[in-house]
Amino acid sequence: MLNNANFNRKRLRQLHRAASELRRGVPVILTGDTPLLILAAETAGPDALAEFESIARVRPVLILAPTRASAILRSPMPVGVSAMAVAVPDSLYRIEVYGALADPMMKQPPGGALEAVAAPIFADAAISLAKIGRLLPALLAAPLPFGQTPGDDLIEVPAADIVAYADSEVAGLRQIVSADVPLSGAPDSRVVAFRSDGSAIEHLAIVVGRPELHESPLVRIHSECFTGDLLGSMRCDCGEQLRGAIRRMADDGAGILLYLAQEGRGIGLVNKLRAYGLQDRGLDTMDANRVLGWEADERNFLIGATMLRLLGVKRVRLLTNNPDKLDAMIACGIEVAGREPHLFAPNGVNDEYLATKATRFGHMLD
Fold this sequence. Notes:
The chain is an alpha/beta fold. 42% of the residues are buried. It has a seven-stranded mixed β-sheet, sandwiched between helices. 36% of the residues lie in helices and 20% in strands. The chain has two domains: 159 residues, DHBP synthase, CATH 3.90.870; 154 residues, Rossmann fold (3-Layer(aba) Sandwich), CATH 3.40.50.10990.
């Protein structure tokens, strides 16, 4: 894991500023041996494209995640690559075409006119920065000539810092506040908020009783789900899992539910809604994520393991059906004394979703 000597708060803050600029539709520069000018296809408008062209002085290519590029080009996905590039011909050179290529929910331009080209240096970092900003992983990109100075109004961020973000995301993770919050069915409960250096992202721990006094308290890692947890969506079982876990911990006498800000397995709420639209067209939850350009699961469970250590808990019984969570906790130094199943019956709407979790994600059914 990187420490603050290698990845300090200032650098992390600069990285988040760069992601915010992409969300605003503003170009960003990735620095390194050959600086790369990038612009998010999802948020770019005509003015931003004109600014991009005036700086780069060359026609941009479109950087895409391999899963998305393969879908657009209608070709097999190459092995061992994290980013691909596509050249858009003059006949299709419009900002709305780039937006449509980024978003499979939009009407797609003719794929036969597109051409795969060599991805520029730092293309993988560009994809990662878009994902940090919870944007579709699709960016206009152009290398900047050596010595070119585009001005001091664009955010610059080292590509190496973006690649290192998964580890640095937990740098400086600390407890911000703890407050007693009696819950229905679990009145002896409190909510503890955590925040990382340089980031406004906050993760929560719902603490039932005094788990730190137990040898191996019950723990659940729960990713936030606005639609399921708050609205009671029937498309998933997240709301049932959330409330069921709290009841289980109250019955057990103590426990910790880690409520991580990683909506939609880490792709964000807007992209999860896009994935729902693709599922309505016949894809399952795994393939929908991939067509959008995301991996099947983009979560960082090191955050949860770090929260547990900060709460004084190093040995747990994990309330989960997901073997990846078991492996992740062990890899992050948390001793898993056992697994407790956490199953809920299908409701007639989420039957296929639950089946996909079992058959394709390997979730255990007992």
